[in-house]
Structures are given as structure tokens and as C-alpha cells.
Amino acid sequence: MSDTILDLLERNADHAERFADRFDDVQDAQHPEAVTVCCSDSRVLQDAIFGNEDPGYLFTCGNIGNRVVQRTEAGEVVSGDVLYPLAHTGTETAVVVGHTGCGAVTATYDDLTEGLSEPPGIEHCIGLLKPHLEGGVESLPDDVGRAGAINRLVEYNVDRQVEVLVESDDVAEDVEVVGAVYDFQDVYGGQRGELHVVNVDGETSVETLRAEYPDMADRVHRLWEY
């Protein structure tokens, strides 16, 4: 048995000891306050970035590129992973979280500009992002370097995923959809690990968002208002 597995089991034992009495109210049902859709990057600790240690508080979804879409025979639809809590547990808030330096966005950018060769599974994931990022790649400013281009496309991708949720007939109109970017690279000028709100229900204007939501005005930032 590898040391990694033994370490994971030891960490789980500590977890079980700390959480033993935290499941009493959620053993038989869940009614999470929000569904969060984050990139599955190992640097993005989905519960920890919200300070969450309460079972039942967040319904967490993770995949490369923080996608809310999947392909079916009926075409592209909202992923069941994201739709389930919205449709069946009374959850009325969805938060799409991208992050600076996203590898999935980088790979999609490279595929759109140069072409890539990846294993089928990765190619499928990139293929889900490509149609949503094509417009962003075409609109990038000419004077932005590679890192700047990627981080602008991170915002663009969050916008497109929020757009899918807002426009889907499967998502109730009263569901609030928020898009944010998690920054651990000092891109936005705050502390590393801060979330920066870039989109609320499809609205992306920093000025408008700060005016409409004064309580979080200092957390609204964008690199790019295209």
C-alpha cells in the first residue's frame, strides 16, 4: 500500500472524529443553500474556499473547466450534476467558480489557436468548452500576452457557463446565478485565495454590479469588459 493511501486514510480518520456529530440533521435528506461548480484543479479547494465545514450546506460539483454543460442525444443541456440540487433539493443559488491560470481554459485556447492532441477523455472535455470560448479567443485584445489572454478567457468561460444556466428552461427563473473567479496568482490585486465576483444573473458590468449590490461592491472585479 502506498504512503499516499495510508496518509489519506489517516486524514480521513481525523475527519471522521471531528465530524462525527455533524450529520445528525442531514442523514436522511439534504437542502443545500447553494450549488457550486468549480474547476477540479487541485489548487481549488472547493469547500475550503467558502470556509465550509457543515455537511449539507453546499452541493459541490467539480470538473475541469467548471462546466455546467453536458452533451446528450437531445443536444447540449445543463449537466445533471448541477441541475439535480436545483430541481430536487430546493436550492435557489448557483455559483460558477473559475480560477486564474486554469489548465482547461489554457488547453482550449491552445486547441483553438494551434490544435492539440489529447486522449479522448480530455478531448471530450475540451470539446465541451471550445464552442463557448471561440468568441472570446476572437475578441482578445492584440496587446495581451499569453497569461493575460488565459485569465481573460477564464472570465469569459465563467460568463458563458452562467449564461447557460440563466437561459436554460430547466433552471427555474428565481434561481440566482453568480459567476466568480478564484485568484491564487495575484492577478486581481487582492489576497491570494480571494473570490472576485464577475457576473450576477448575466450582468457583467462592474459599475452596474457594484451599484446594484453595494454590500459586495469591494468584491466585484473584472480584468475584461468586452
UniProtKB/TrEMBL annotation:
PANTHER family: CARBONIC ANHYDRASE (PTHR11002). Binds 1 zinc ion per subunit. Belongs to the beta-class carbonic anhydrase family. Transmembrane segments: none annotated. InterPro entries: Carbonic_anhydrase, Carbonic_anhydrase_sf. This is carbonic anhydrase. Keywords: Lyase, Metal-binding, Zinc. Gene3D superfamilies: Carbonic anhydrase. The keyword Lyase applies. It catalyses: hydrogencarbonate + H(+) = CO2 + H2O. GO terms for molecular function: carbonate dehydratase activity; zinc ion binding. Its EC number is 4.2.1.1. Zn(2+) binds at residues 39, 99, 102. Its cofactor is Zn(2+). The lineage of its organism: Archaea, Methanobacteriati, Methanobacteriota, Stenosarchaea group, Halobacteria.
